[in-house]
Design brief:
about 575 residues; disordered C terminus; 6-stranded mixed beta sheet; single chain; 7-stranded mixed beta sheet
């Protein structure tokens, strides 16, 4: 054990090497009266990794000498190479993977050692994965997102939760306000500073992530870095963005793991949904059928109900572009997610556009959107998805495998909450946007022509709807559909009163023939069904929701715990 003087003089690199050596010893837990584990979020991005290392360094310097403080990166060691910007930033400071402790490198027996362990969560507020059962040991939380509603934590846990641009800002503020810490060195100050620059995109007004506190703290950190080591902010950001975007050699599976968070339900039948952030646009990496197949396999292997993939591109002038890909085989859950993402929340929406000529969904389990409200990041989207998943886990019927006949969905609609008549697909059905309208028409045609299998594709020589279908094509302009202040509720007529027949719906000429042929075919089949069964109305199938314009998503309010907070 180090003396107080040794602890004060110790630098970050020396601390990391020493603590790694200590946990490598046999029965290392028996050597300490207490163990404090500082762990970041499972995304293990630069904010999470730097906040973990620097805050653990601070706690080490201010804790009793009989307490071991472990900085743990919340990712398996084999996945560290995927965190390209983390690897780059730490290597610049002389830190490599041999000096780091990863989640899969520590094992703590609850029965023997759990009473001496305390968890400090940074950049997240809920223990997940390997640490999911350790909520009772949480002693402190430092996070820049709102706390998850309904979570129980020890009453004496110290909470520092504030909606700033970066968790590194809150960590740096803690160190700046603690004169006895000695943890703010040139190395730690630079790591915190560049992390804030990356998270706020160099305080970009368009991104709307930076707060006054982010700027003030960053200014204080710069003063602690030698002048010769300080680079222009734009140069620092550019180097980090290049490192983060160095994904050419990564497979789709590795790309999804690079920055992934899993949200779960706590019901008897657990549901897990992945939220993956990509340092590139979806349409640049995931448009091929092979890529979409790999996404399906990724979810199957991890027993996920699906994945929400968020693409981001930052141009050289710090302009943002975002898009979203949804893959959810359970179509009821998929459409609940789509509806939730379209909803206005706190006078704001994501401004999703479902029309893109370059993207072809492999099947109806995929949905793609351009996100024109670029200020909304995963921090705002994740609570929406968590709410949908929590509700769906209670209300959705059991799902087993990918659906291949939407009649199976129809049989469950009576018990499914909806604000429209049960014979309509509007609201919870397959008709929220152009992709779903055309996809649903195509699926109906395929199902009728192939004896009930909507995902069947004929062999060579026969007509292949997979290649001919204009899934995702621009068929009409939502902005030009006039006079609709409420969601369209169709009657039982499939074509005549559908939104595609309304005045102001502008069809692209190249797709008119394809769509008219399919809809005429379906209408005749429907009329034939009516003639045979006049007392059994058929489900209407086409409608549209209007999207309201708005400004950026509002930030969450500041939250405080019961313990005293640092000023």
């Amino acid at each position: 054990m180090d003396t107080d003087e040794q602890r004060k003089r110790m630098g970050l690199l020396e601390y990391l090497k020493k603590v790694k050596e200590q946990v490598a010893q046999k029965n290392w837990l028996d050597l300490w009266e207490g163990v404090r584990i500082v762990v970041g979020s499972e995304s293990c991005d630069l904010d999470s990794a730097v906040s973990t290392l620097v805050y653990a360094f601070h706690v080490h310097k201010t804790s009793d000498a009989k307490c071991l403080v472990l900085p743990v990166l919340n990712t398996p060691e084999q996945d560290y190479i995927l965190k390209t910007e983390v690897v780059f930033a730490l290597q610049e400071q002389g830190i490599d993977s041999s000096q780091l402790i990863f989640l899969d490198q520590i094992t703590i027996s609850k029965s023997k050692h759990w009473t001496k362990v305390q968890l400090i969560l940074v950049d997240h507020s809920t223990p997940v994965g390997k640490l999911a059962d350790s909520r009772a040991t949480v002693a402190e939380i430092v996070d820049h997102r709102a706390l998850v509603p309904g979570q129980d934590y020890p009453e004496d846990a110290l909470l520092t939760v504030e909606p700033v641009g970066s968790c590194a800002t809150l960590v740096a503020e803690r160190l700046l306000n603690h004169p006895d810490s000695c943890a703010l060195t040139a190395t730690t100050a630079y790591l915190l500073y560049e992390t804030i620059l990356l998270d706020t995109i160099n305080f970009s007004p368009e991104a709307r992530k930076a707060t006054a506190k982010d700027r003030r703290v960053a200014d204080e950190l710069v003063k602690m870095i030698p002048v010769t080591a300080v680079k222009p902010p734009q140069q620092i950001l550019s180097r980090l963005l290049d490192a983060k975007a160095d994904i050419a050699k990564l497979s789709i599976s590795q790309l999804l793991q690079k920055d992934m968070k899993i949200i779960t339900t706590e019901t008897q039948e657990e549901m897990k949904l992945a939220i993956c952030s990509l340092p590139a646009l979806i349409k640049e990496r995931c448009i091929s059928e092979a890529a979409q197949t790999e996404i399906e396999q990724f979810c199957d292997q991890r027993e996920l109900v699906g994945a929400v993939i968020l693409g981001t591109s930052i141009l050289c002038d710090e302009q943002l572009q975002r898009d979203i890909l949804l893959y959810v085989p359970d179509h009821l859950l998929l459409n609940r997610i789509v509806n939730a993402l379209h909803e206005r929340r706190r006078n704001s929406t994501l401004h999703l556009q479902a029309i893109d000529d370059n993207f072809r969904p492999k099947n109806l389990s995929f949905r793609y959107f351009n996100q024109t409200n670029v200020t909304a990041s995963r921090k705002q989207i994740l609570p929406v998805l968590q709410s949908v998943l929590d509700t769906a886990s209670v209300m959705l019927p059991p799902f087993h495998g990918e659906q291949d006949d939407d009649d199976e969905n129809e049989s469950n609609l009576d018990s499914y909450p909806t604000s429209v008549p049960p014979n309509s697909y509007v609201g919870e059905g397959f008709v929220h946007d152009t992709q779903s309208v055309i996809g649903h028409v195509t699926q109906r045609v395929q199902r009728m022509q192939t004896g009930g299998n909507p995902l069947y594709f004929p062999t060579s020589g026969e007509k292949r709807y997979r290649s001919d279908s204009p899934l995702g094509e621009r068929l009409f302009d939502y902005d030009n559909i006039k006079g609709r202040s409420e969601p369209f509720t169709p009657s039982n007529t499939f074509v005549d009163e559908s939104v595609l027949m309304q005045e102001g719906a502008h069809l692209d000429t190249q797709h008119v023939g394809i769509l008219q042929n399919k809809m005429t075919y379906l209408k005749r089949r429907q009329e034939s069904d009516y003639a045979r069964e006049p007392n059994e109305p058929k489900d209407s199938e086409i409608g549209v929701f209007e999207m309201e314009d708005d400004e950026s998503l509002s930030r969450v309010p500041k939250q405080y715990g019961k313990a005293q907070f640092p000023k």
